[in-house]
């Protein structure tokens, strides 16, 4: 993982959301065992997705992300993680490189990864084999609008993000000026879409060609949205 700038987008809607005097540091979780083994690995059959921990490489990435934050002298008033184990373990790795330690994060389910229902831990071949009709509907409706049985569509996750941002602006977390969020990759794509005013097609393009890498660090403030490291 190298420290470099690889993207910078102006946030057209940042001021509209009431965030002009606030900033968000977003860190995607480190490489997880799910990232390494894939959905075809039978060793994961009995492990719920939210208990996928980070790999040895993910542990290294999380410590390195902590070192970058420390070296840049970045600070925050409050930090947050999702209910998934991989975000907590990433946070723990980041915390380990700070000599004075850090206050424990708040667990907020609104930061949870975009849940794809029955598709979330199924590979494409099994989806096509066992749910051909539903698979056809998903292809017709598209990645953002389709809601798998038991899952969420893109707009459902965006409602969670707006709810969280509202608390940051004028609700429970409004006393904080800067927050740190350790979260998930697809959640981050929708966060990016909201903050930049990007279209659904542009978000899909980013998801395919320039996603948020494991332990990437993204700063979002009144000047724009910038990823300062990306694997």
Short summary of the structure?
This protein has helices spanning 33-37, 56-71, 85-95, 124-130, 132-141, 154-170, 185-196, 200-209, and strands spanning 3-9, 23-28, 78-81, 106-107, 178-183, 217-221, 224-229. It has 231 residues and is α/β, with parallel strands linked by helices. The protein has one domain: 3-Layer(aba) Sandwich (Rossmann fold), CATH 3.40.50.
Q: SSE layout and pairings?
A:
Elements: E1 3-9, E2 23-28, H1 33-37, H2 56-71, E3 78-81, H3 85-95, E4 106-107, H4 124-130, H5 132-141, H6 154-170, E5 178-183, H7 185-196, H8 200-209, E6 217-221, E7 224-229
Parallel strand pairs: 2-5, 3-4, 3-5
Antiparallel strand pairs: 1-7, 2-6, 6-7
Instruction: Work out the radius of gyration.
Output: 18 Å
The tally of structural domains comes to 1
Spans of at least 5 consecutive residues with low confidence = 1-7
Mean pLDDT across every amino acid position: 88
Any idea of the CATH class? Alpha Beta
CATH topology: Rossmann fold
> What's the end-to-end separation, in Å?
5 Å
Fold and architecture overview:
This protein is α/β, with parallel strands linked by helices and 231 residues long. Helix content is 38%, strand content 16%. It is built from 8 helices and 7 strands, in the order E-E-H-H-E-H-E-H-H-H-E-H-H-E-E. Strands 1-7-6-2-5-3-4 form a 7-stranded mixed β-sheet. Helix 2 (56-71) crosses helix 3 (85-95). Residues 1-7 have low confidence and may be disordered.
Notable features of this structure?
231 residues, alpha/beta, Rossmann fold, 7-stranded mixed beta sheet, 8 helices, 7 strands, globular
């Amino acid at each position: 993982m190298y420290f470099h700038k690889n993207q910078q987008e102006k946030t057209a809607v940042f001021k509209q959301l009431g965030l002009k005097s606030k900033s968000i540091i977003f860190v995607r979780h480190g490489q997880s065992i799910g990232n390494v083994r894939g959905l075809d690995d039978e060793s994961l059959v009995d492990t719920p997705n939210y208990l996928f921990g980070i790999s040895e490489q993910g542990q290294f990435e999380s410590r390195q992300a902590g070192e970058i934050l420390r070296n840049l002298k970045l600070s925050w008033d409050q930090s947050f993680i999702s209910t998934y184990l991989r975000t907590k373990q990433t946070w723990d790795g980041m915390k380990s490189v700070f000599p004075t330690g850090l206050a424990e994060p708040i667990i907020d389910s609104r930061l949870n990864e975009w849940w794809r229902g029955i598709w979330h831990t199924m590979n494409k071949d099994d989806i096509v084999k066992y749910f051909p009709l539903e698979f056809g509907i998903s292809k017709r409706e598209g990645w953002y609008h389709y809601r798998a049985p038991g899952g969420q569509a893109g707009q459902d996750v965006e409602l969670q993000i707006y709810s969280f941002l509202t608390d940051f602006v004028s609700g429970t977390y409004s006393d904080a000026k800067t927050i740190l969020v350790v979260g998930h990759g697809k959640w981050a794509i929708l966060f990016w879409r909201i903050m930049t005013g990007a279209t659904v097609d542009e978000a899909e393009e980013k998801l395919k060609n320039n996603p948020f890498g494991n332990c990437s660090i993204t700063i979002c403030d009144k000047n724009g949205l910038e990823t300062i490291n990306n694997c």
